[in-house]
Amino acid sequence: MLELKHVWKSYRVGALGSKRLTAVRDVSIDIAPGEVLSVVGESGSGKTTIGKMVLQLTSVTKGQILLDGEDVTARGHAARKAYYRRVQGVFQDPFSSYNPIFKADRIFETVRESYFADVKRAEWTARVEDVLQGVRLDPGSVLGKYPHQLSGGQLQRMLIARALLLDIKVLVADEIISMLDASTRIDVLNLLGELKERGLGVLFITHDLSLANYISERVVIMRHGAVVESGTTGKVFTDPRHPYSRNLLASVPQLHRKWSDSEAVPEKLEADGDRDLDPAPLTEVDEGHWVAAHP
Ligand SMILES: Nc1ncnc2c1ncn2[C@@H]1O[C@H](COP(=O)(O)OP(=O)(O)O)[C@@H](O)[C@H]1O
Ligand SMILES: [Mg+2]
């Protein structure tokens, strides 16, 4: 359904944009309907840049992004508007998606203005209440409120409800759990589970391996902008092959182990210099389990 083919992104950086920083290197991924694909990796590995390119918030330097086989990059305003009916994003900080001087439910109104101006008021209200209930929010307790009167979890769920009003096919969720309280984290995670059961594809971006393991069918591990390993969550988590993946998994704190009896901290892999290189080729080590060549 959604496909990235050999996608690269470089940003201009330094004085007057004199240098280039390669943030994403030759990434190919795809998401099927009803599937959650996690993109994991440490900070700076290029995860958010991938999400932004999918959401057309930043340009693609090289490569293609396809939705149902159609190239969606670099097209006009009308095509972009049609695209946003099918692909939407939710981000880490829900507060940043709201204007504090307006009531939070204004986010629904802007969808109506852009896409459903012909829908009658009463019918629209019913639809909004419906999607709110779909994300397990009580319309009475969120409608008419200002953002500061609502919790991060409520605001996050309203953004998901907004996406559902559009009847989207793909949701990009970038670190959406990180800023929530422990008590609402599991609700939002379970909500994503329900969405995938309705056939939505979710690009779940996270630095948190345990979240990726919990929610996704497949996982892509990134480092310095390139994919180092990908495959079904079961295979990658039980049988990681790339030293970087192993390192990452070994560094997840485990509940049954105390810090005092943990092993020595794994040695840091070499530094950032490989950003300018072509990424190592991936080989299939097991069905659907791909690993980048490594020493
Ligand atoms: N707008 C930008 N301009 C220049 N460099 C950027 C920009 N956005 C991100 N980067 C750089 O690109 C790399 C990848 O960033 P990002 O995609 O945000 O990683 P992640 O989400 O995995 O933490 C980082 O080195 C970051 O500093
Ligand atoms: Mg990020």
From TrEMBL:
Occurrences of domain ABC transporter (ranges): 2-249
GO BP field: peptide transport
SMART domains the UniProt entry points to: AAA (SM00382)
Residue ranges of coiled coil: none
Pfam family, any one: ABC_tran
UniProt KW keywords: ATP-binding, Nucleotide-binding, Transport
MF terms (GO), sorted A to Z: ATP binding; ATP hydrolysis activity
Biased composition (Basic and acidic residues): 263-278
Region (Disordered): 263-295
Matching PANTHER family: ABC-TYPE DIPEPTIDE/OLIGOPEPTIDE TRANSPORT SYSTEM, ATPASE COMPONENT, ABC-TYPE DIPEPTIDE_OLIGOPEPTIDE TRANSPORT SYSTEM, ATPASE COMPONENT
Name of the molecule in the record: Peptide/nickel transport system ATP-binding protein
Species in which this protein is naturally found: Glycomyces sambucus
